[in-house]
Amino acid sequence: MTIKEQIHQVKRQSARLAASSNEERNELLSSIAKGLLDDWDAIVRANALDLSAPDIPPAVRSRLVFSEEKRDAVIKGISEVSHLPDLIGKVLERRELDSCFILSRISVPLGVIGMVFEARPDALVQIVSLAVKSGNGIVLKGGSEAMHTNQALAASIMKSAEKSTVGNGWILLLTSREEVGEMLTANGDIDLIIPRGSNTFVSFVMRHTTIPVLGHSSGICHLYVSAHANLSMASLVAVDPKPTYPAACNAIETLLVDRSVASSFIPLVATALREKGVVIHGDKETCALVPDSIPYKDGDWGKEYLALELNIHVVSSLEEAMTHINTYGSHHTDAIITEDKAEGETFQRGVDSADVFVNCSTRFSDGYRFGLGAEVGISTSKVHARGPVGLSGLMSSKWLLSGHGELVATYTGKNARPFTHKELPL
Amino acid sequence: MTIKEQIHQVKRQSARLAASSNEERNELLSSIAKGLLDDWDAIVRANALDLSAPDIPPAVRSRLVFSEEKRDAVIKGISEVSHLPDLIGKVLERRELDSCFILSRISVPLGVIGMVFEARPDALVQIVSLAVKSGNGIVLKGGSEAMHTNQALAASIMKSAEKSTVGNGWILLLTSREEVGEMLTANGDIDLIIPRGSNTFVSFVMRHTTIPVLGHSSGICHLYVSAHANLSMASLVAVDPKPTYPAACNAIETLLVDRSVASSFIPLVATALREKGVVIHGDKETCALVPDSIPYKDGDWGKEYLALELNIHVVSSLEEAMTHINTYGSHHTDAIITEDKAEGETFQRGVDSADVFVNCSTRFSDGYRFGLGAEVGISTSKVHARGPVGLSGLMSSKWLLSGHGELVATYTGKNARPFTHKELPL
Q1: Across the interface, which of B210, B355, B404 has its CB nearest the CB of A401?
Q2: Does A302 touch chain B if contact means CB atoms closer than 8 Å?
Q3: Which of A45, B110, B291, B403 has its CA 20 to 30 A from that of A308?
């Protein structure tokens, strides 16, 4: 079978998973968890093979290692996902069109998710568990550095699923980068593509498919310290994102400072940032206040440093800060520090981003922290799901209408019977 | 300015509309309605110019005429749209992350809608009124047959809007087909494209843009008459769709008949269809029962006739009917006639379409009939809005989080403070 035919098989066979009960899906999840323990030796051997490759950078190695600790964390994660409320069949709207003629909109699985993810074996298990719980088939392509581990994990999952009531036709692991191209052109068989990885890769995916894509390429986030900010709070919040995880998509790349507080705040925050090893790229006014900062270069404002570096830029007003954010940002997460409630609300209304915060760190933009249970990614798209995406972003809906032989002819023309159009409780 | 620059201007200037109050938008709507009356003479002259073109087919002419009756209908429509509930800022979710640290998700406009529509001047007014109410900028391209009328309507609307608090920077009318290409590549400035028109055109749009598209190309809808159908009801429902509006996207193209009722039902429905002038394309069994039907040809099952023609096909089970629909249909609207409630539910679960009906006509698939107030189109996409799309399909959402200096560092690591993650009433 070609890759396209295999993907088509997944589409066809996922119908059984979509039609399964919550109990069936939870049982499948628990047998997947049990299977990972049963197959642990094979998984460890495969992981050792991946780790034996020469010249793995330390950051990749730490993501690649699939330790007992990580295994136990993903098994705990599977159990948490199985306890999330079942969304299949959930009634979203109900309306009476006429007496005994009821329209409803219910939540249904999207169909098949195409997921491309980084070299993190634990991500594979997390994604599969969300796919199972939401009733979606899944076509996976993981980072090539983790190929053997991913194959061992997928083999274990498929073995567990084979014995389940829903079978294992709903999952497919692709192994080569070329096969991603087959995924991007599988219109009709793949309903949503979720790419994770480098900005270049995600942008490539977004430009090369007409299948809906959920995710974000860059995370160019801002913190605006307003004229009405509590400056010591501002300094703590400004320093929170970068050091904890410099490459995080929700870490700030540019700190915007209102001119009226620049001379008091910038030296203060510069000291705090310097202590954490953060390099400052400053505009003219910042460089005058912090002589060891790197002078601003064209393009810095649209850059995601993915490192212990950030821009500091002085602005003259809330308006200028919002315009800067809407122009140079990536519509991901932006925050303001202000004691003026009305100013905070104006900022939240005017900034066109998925997450707009007042008086807290941008790094709260995260499915777990938001209380979504788990996360497949963070979307900067404005259609479907926006911001951190959990189970609900993997659902579509359908409209059901049940009658007794109603004809449109009855409700049309001169003597048309009127609709009642009465909203009903869910 | 180039077209791209003009579209970018619309994006920039729509921010004012997005930030406007419901009162401001309703005032704008009422001055647009008043303006259409004030400018009526100019509109009539422009419409006469369009109607003076040689060789306009009668069907196009009847859509093209902008009579006083149509004007009054659109003015009534504007008033109805202004009375719809305001969705901007509507709270969709609320969750406590920690004491006094509240996350909410609110409804916001998408930004700018790119709309390509058929030669129906009344559609322009309807679309503009939905754009205004939802706070979205709009880039319009109407059918070229209606060019002068559209220009007169747009000029009137822009004149009315110019005097309003939100100005008229949020609307742009494109006039040439080539400019549609500029729309399809305006990523970042256009947030959603809604194409209406021929299947070929809509498919072209869907294949040639990476901007999200809302709509449907073909409407290949089915009615399945089950073994447990009330056959006289089935016959009435089968005849309802085609004659009322043969080219409607929600009219059935194939009537599937369970073998157990075929010999009694098919002659019955054939007579009823023949009376309405509907031509039958039949499979072997149908042709044996209805000798004057046209024998099935390869490809008929995937065809949208857009005329007084349909297929009749005998199937041996509910399963076969559902497989046929999921294989050959366009995932738009499909219905079953059955007196068996469980069978109806199985059909509604198993058919992968936007609208799945029991015991009623497929032509109920319509924004007005669904009680959505008005409709921009019917979506067969599974992400964002599915089925008839009203105001809510023109909305996105954003997450707001307001705190008192909360840091992610506090909620991370060994002594992490736990989140409360408590759902709050809306």
Answers
A1: B355
A2: no
A3: B403
Whether residues A408 and B369 touch (CB distance < 8 A) is answered with yes
- pLDDT at residue number A413: 86
End-of-domain residue from the set A308, A342, A364: A364
The enclosing domain of B94 has a CATH number of 3.40.605.10
Across the beta sheet with A171-174, what order do the strands follow? A171-174, A137-141, A112-116, A192-195
A17 chain-B contacts, CB cut-off 8 A: none
Burial level of B243, CB count in 10 A (0-12/13-18/19+)?
middle
B254 falls within a domain: yes
Whether B80 and chain A come into contact, CB under 8 Å, resolves to: no
The mean predicted confidence, pLDDT, of chain B is 95
Of A191, A210, A230, the CB nearest to B210: A210
Q: Closest to A402 (Cβ–Cβ): which among B359, B363, B404? A: B359
**CA closest to A193 among chain B residues:** B383
Chain B from 90 to 109: CB within 8 A of any A CB = 95, 97, 101, 103, 105
| Average pLDDT of span B143-162 | 97
B323 and B391, same domain (yes or no): no
pLDDT reported for residue A374: 81
Within a 10 A sphere around the Cβ of B267, how many other Cβ atoms?
12
Answer yes or no: is B83 within a domain: yes
Distance from CA of A57 to the nearest CA of B (A): 24
CA distance B403 to chain A (A): 5
Beta carbon pairs, A and B, within 8 Å: 215
Q: Which candidate, B101, B121, B122, B110, places its Cα nearest to that of B10?
A: B110
Tell the burial category of A20 from Cβ atoms under 10 Å away from its Cβ (0-12, 13-18, 19+). buried
Residue A233: CATH number of its domain: 3.40.309.10
Chain B nearest CA to A210, separation (Å): 6
Q: Is B143 in the same domain as B7?
A: yes
Helix axes A121-134, A22-38, angle to 10 degrees: 160
Same domain, B275 and B355: yes
Under the banding of pLDDT at 50, 70 and 90, the label for residue B161 is: very high
- Overall average pLDDT of the B22-33 stretch: 98
Clarify whether residues A175 and A264 are in a common domain.
no
**Mean pLDDT for the stretch of residues B239-268:** 92
Q: Has residue B82 been placed in a domain?
A: yes
The residue range of the domain holding A57 is 3-214+376-398
A213-266 confidence digits (pLDDT tens): 999 888 999 999 999 999 999 999 999 977 778 888 999 999 999 999 999 999
Mind telling me how many Å the CA of B211 is from chain A's nearest CA? 8
What domain count does chain A have?
Answer: 2
Q: Taking CB atoms and an 8 Å limit, are B355 and A230 in contact across chains? A: no
Q: Whole-angstrom Cα distance, residue B311 to residue B302?
A: 10
Same domain, B21 and B89: yes
Tokens of A355: 């997450």
Which of B34, B12, B11, B28 has its CA nearest to residue B161? B28
Contact A396 B407 (CB under 8 A): no
Its pTM surpasses 0.90: yes
Asked if residue A293 and residue A151 are part of one domain, the reply reads: no
pLDDT grade for B242, boundaries at 50, 70 and 90? confident
End-to-end distance of chain B based on CA atoms, in angstroms? 45
Nearest-neighbour CA in chain B from A235: distance (Å): 10
Please tell me the distance from the alpha carbon of residue B99 to that of residue B411, in angstroms, as a whole number. Answer: 13
B350 has a chain A CB within 8 A of its CB: yes
Residue B425 resides in a domain: no
Window 17-76 of B, Cβ < 8 Å to A: 19
Q: Is pLDDT of B154 > 80?
A: yes
The neighbouring-strand residues paired with B101 are B98
Same domain, A201 and A236: no
Same-domain pairing of A8 and A115:
yes
